[in-house]
Amino acid sequence: MRAALLPVARAASLGLSFWLLLSWVDRGVVAKELKFVTLVFRHGDRSPIETFPNDPIKESSWPQGFGQLTQLGMEQHYELGQYIRKRYRKFLNESYKPEQVYIQSTDIDRTLMSAMVNLAGLFPPEGVSIWNPSLPWQPIPVHTVSLSEDRLLYLPFQDCPRFKELKEETLKSTEFQKRLHPYKNFIETLPTFTGYHTEDLFGMWTKVYDPLFCESIHNFTLPSWATEDTMFKLKKLSELSILSIYGIHKQKEKSRLQGGVLVSEILTNMNSATQPSNHRKLVMYSAHDTTVSGLQMALDVYNGILPPYASCHIMELYLEKGEYFVEMYYRNETQHEPYPLTLPGCIPSCPLTEFTKLVAPVIPQDWSTECMTTSKDQVLRVVLAVAFCLVSGVLVVLLFTLLRYGPCWHRDPYRNI
Ligand SMILES: *[C@@H]1O[C@H](CO)[C@@H](O)[C@H](O)[C@H]1NC(C)=O
Ligand SMILES: *[C@@H]1O[C@H](CO)[C@@H](O)[C@H](O)[C@H]1NC(C)=O
Ligand SMILES: *[C@@H]1O[C@H](CO)[C@@H](O)[C@H](O)[C@H]1NC(C)=O
């Protein structure tokens, strides 16, 4: 009896394996279709934006002055462009098509230039798009809005009172003070070397660590106090600065006012991409370390390390068996395949519906209103409401008094006669 069943069992198990293999092939190769890609990257290598008073290396030591993309930075973004071309060769169908691609940059030289050199690597003209045989380049538009109107990429947004309040709360929080404590003595020694007096971590990052970092990359001799140990501590303080801007205290609420704005825009684009009428395949955002980290803090996938030059946050939308999935990657090293990022609470290939639910808490409903809702305003609002009630109470009493006794004032003195 058992022996008779064996061939049946074998056949069944073979059939099952075959089916599993087929469905695997089906999932991996046939059915999973890339529909839409979003890239958010940092500009390439640049000169410092500013520096500390005692720095012997002044702005004039940099060929293009402060804050400009260097040739190394151009190389980095050309490389990233070539990588994107390789990664999406089939998806983008060779050459540039205006309706498929949209690029937006912050309105700053280095991010605009990074986007342009990236596009030179991504879309060299081919076939009919070659317009000058001796120039392997074609113009591709890079969109921007002025910094004062940039409510998408130029993070962290400053004109937001509630965010300012949250930042102040963060600096007072025990968690932040705990993380800062080991560096207290070190911070006190800094002004004698730098000539720059500040308690502000963001200042130490942008005015001390960053210029020294740029100078070391460009083979300038650092001041003798800028030892390896000093640089390490400055780097840690800079990382703490980013973390304290976007997180440590009330990260979700801060994200609504910062990176959540970009998450919202990306979700909107993804949802448009699920529509049959959609032609757009790729949206690229050229921005800053504070943009990449702000986005990743809103998505809660930030690794806490300062985003390197030309690092790129990748979001891919796939269609598989009628359902949409979001996959995220972080290309922060040229020598390493992009690191997969998993939205907390989801799986690496996260259903779009689930993704939308999970990020809902960081999507602002009305950014401006949420920014104006500071706790001081809330107190003021309560005070005003109480005052309003009191005043209306008094008015009502007055009105009743008037109605009750008022008519006597108007009595015709002769009527009773
Ligand atoms: C690429 O474009 C060509 C010509 O427009 C078209 O025939 C081909 O099907 C396209 N391939 C893909 C993968 O979209
Ligand atoms: C700094 O010096 C190293 C070693 O000589 C060299 O490989 C590198 O290209 C230099 N960096 C820059 C930005 O010039
Ligand atoms: C890149 O990201 C990975 C994953 O978070 C991290 O382990 C690695 O140290 C990062 N590399 C750089 C250069 O930031």
Q: Number of helical segments? A: 16
Using the CA coordinates, give the radius of gyration.
Answer: 30 Å
**Distinct ligand kinds:** 2-acetamido-2-deoxy-beta-D-glucopyranose
Order of helices and strands: HEHHEHHHHHHHHEHEEEEHHHH
General shape: globular
- Any idea how many domains? 2
- Specify the CATH class of the largest domain: Alpha Beta
Note the beta-strand portion: 5-15%
In the CATH hierarchy, what is the superfamily of the largest domain? Phosphoglycerate mutase-like
Helix-residue proportion:
40-55%
CATH topology of the largest domain: Rossmann fold
> What is the correct CATH architecture of the largest domain?
3-Layer(aba) Sandwich
Q: Whole-Å distance between the termini? A: 125 Å
Number of strands: 7
Main sheet properties: 7 strands, mixed
Low-confidence stretches are 413-417
Give me a quick take on this structure.
51% of the residues lie in helices and 11% in strands. With 417 residues, the chain is an alpha/beta fold.
Describe this structure in words.
The chain is α/β, with parallel strands linked by helices and 417 residues long. The protein folds into 2 domains: 26-366, Rossmann fold (3-Layer(aba) Sandwich); 374-410. It is 51% helix and 11% strand. Strands 1, 2, 3, 4, 5, 6 and 7 form a 7-stranded mixed sheet that branches. Helix 2 (71-87) crosses helix 4 (109-122) and helix 8 crosses helix 9. The structure holds 2-acetamido-2-deoxy-beta-D-glucopyranose (3 copies).
